Amino acid sequence: MIKLAIILSCLMLVSISLVNSKRFQSSNENIPDDPGAGVLDPVEPDNVPDDLTNVAFPSGETVPGKPVDLSDDLAAGDIHPASERIGPAEFNKTRIYDLQEQLAAIEHNMNGTFGVFVKNLADNSTLGYNTDQYWYLASATKIPMAIAILQNAEAGELSLDDEIVLIESHFVDGAGDVLWHQPGTRFRISSLLEKMIQYSDNSATDMLFGLIGEEELNRRIRETMVPEGLGRITSILQVRLDAFSEFHENAVNLSNMDILHVNSTRCRIERLDRLMARMSVGENDLNAGSIAEAFERYYRRNINSGNLEAMGFLLERLYNGELLSEDNTRYLLNVMAGVRTGDQRIKAGLPDGFRFVHKTGTQISRTVNVGIVYPGDDKGYPLIIAASVKSDDLREAENALKEIGRIMSGVMTRQEAAL
Description:
Blueprint: H1 2-20, E1 22-24, E2 29-31, H2 71-75, H3 95-108, E3 113-120, E4 125-129, E5 135-136, H4 142-154, E6 163-165, E7 186-188, H5 189-198, H6 202-212, H7 214-225, H8 236-244, H9 256-262, H10 268-279, H11 291-299, E8 305-306, H12 308-319, H13 326-337, E9 355-363, E10 366-374, E11 383-390, H14 394-417
Antiparallel strand pairs: 1-2, 3-4, 3-11, 5-8, 6-7, 9-10, 10-11
Helix pairs in contact: 3-14, 4-6, 5-6, 9-10
C-alpha cells in the first residue's frame, strides 16, 4: 500500500509538472518552474522564497548580462566594513556562553541536529555549539568563490565588465535564471557574481568556477582566506557527479545534460530510474538504496564542507577588509545584503531594523545560513553567525535557524543598550 501511494503521488507530480513545465530549448527536456522540483528535494536552490526563476531582479533586469542594480538595496542603508564601525560597546562577556542552554533547548525539540558558531565583534567573545566536526556548507561555498573572483579582478586578471558566453555545458539544475537563457547569451562577470550570491544561481556559479578552476580556487582559499578548516570546494556539477558516484562509478561519465534530465522530476522513483538508465546499470548494481542514502555517503567525504568556526573566520576577515580592497569589500558586503533567499531562516528571527549580510545553502537534509548581523544603525559592532542544520524536515531546519537568529540578536540588543 505504501509503495502504491508513492507511485500515485509520483503520477500526480508528473501531471502537475506537465501542466506547468517550460520547454528547455537546448535539450528539449521539461524543466519544472520550481527549481527545487528537479533538484533532489531540494538541492542547492535555497527555498522559500527560492523559486527564483520568475522573480524580478532588483533593477527589473530583463536583458541578460546587465549587472544587477543594487541602488534600491543601498538606499536602505549602505553596509559598512570594519573600517567605519563606531566605538566598542560595554558587554557582559559571560552572556554569550550562557546561550548554550538555549541552543540545547532548540535542538532538544527537533528531530535533527545543528552546529553553530557565533562571534561577537564587540569583545571578540565566541560561542561554538557542535562545532567539533565538519558540516556541509552547500551554497555557502559561493562566498569564497566570489572573493576569489574579486581578487582576480584586483590583480588585473579580469574585469567585472568582461563577458562570458553561455554554452550548453554551463547549464546546471537549481536556482536562478541563467538556465533559461539560450546558448550564446553573453553575461557580464559582475552580473554572474550577483546572481550567484543573491539568487544562488548554480549555472552562474559554474560559469565563474570555470574562470578559476578547482585546484586554483582551493589553493587560493588555503593561502589567502582560511588556512585550514574548509574541505575541498567543487563546482555545482561536480557535487551532482560525486553524489551520484555513491550509487555507481559510471556516474563519472554523466554529462550536465544527463543530470538535468535526471533531476527534472520531483518523483524520487522516476528520478532514480532515469539515473540508472543514464548510467546503464540496474537496481542490483547500485551501492546505495536511495538518493538520500547516496547523499549521506557523499557528506561523509567532507567535500564542500567545513568547520563552522573556519567559515566564521572567513566572514570576519571579509568584514575586516583583510581579503579585498575597501571598495570590493563594500561591494561584496552589499551584494550579500541583497540576498533574496532564506527569508525564513536567521533573518526571520532578527528584530526590525537589523540587517543580515549573508548566504544560504540547501541540499538533501542540510540547511545552511552564514553571515554577518548588523545592528539597527549599521555601524555598530556586528555578530558573525555560521550555522548548518541536519534535518529531513526543511521547516524544522528553518525554524531552528530562525530561533538561533532570535536568541543571538538578543546579545546585540543588550549590547546597543550599553552604548
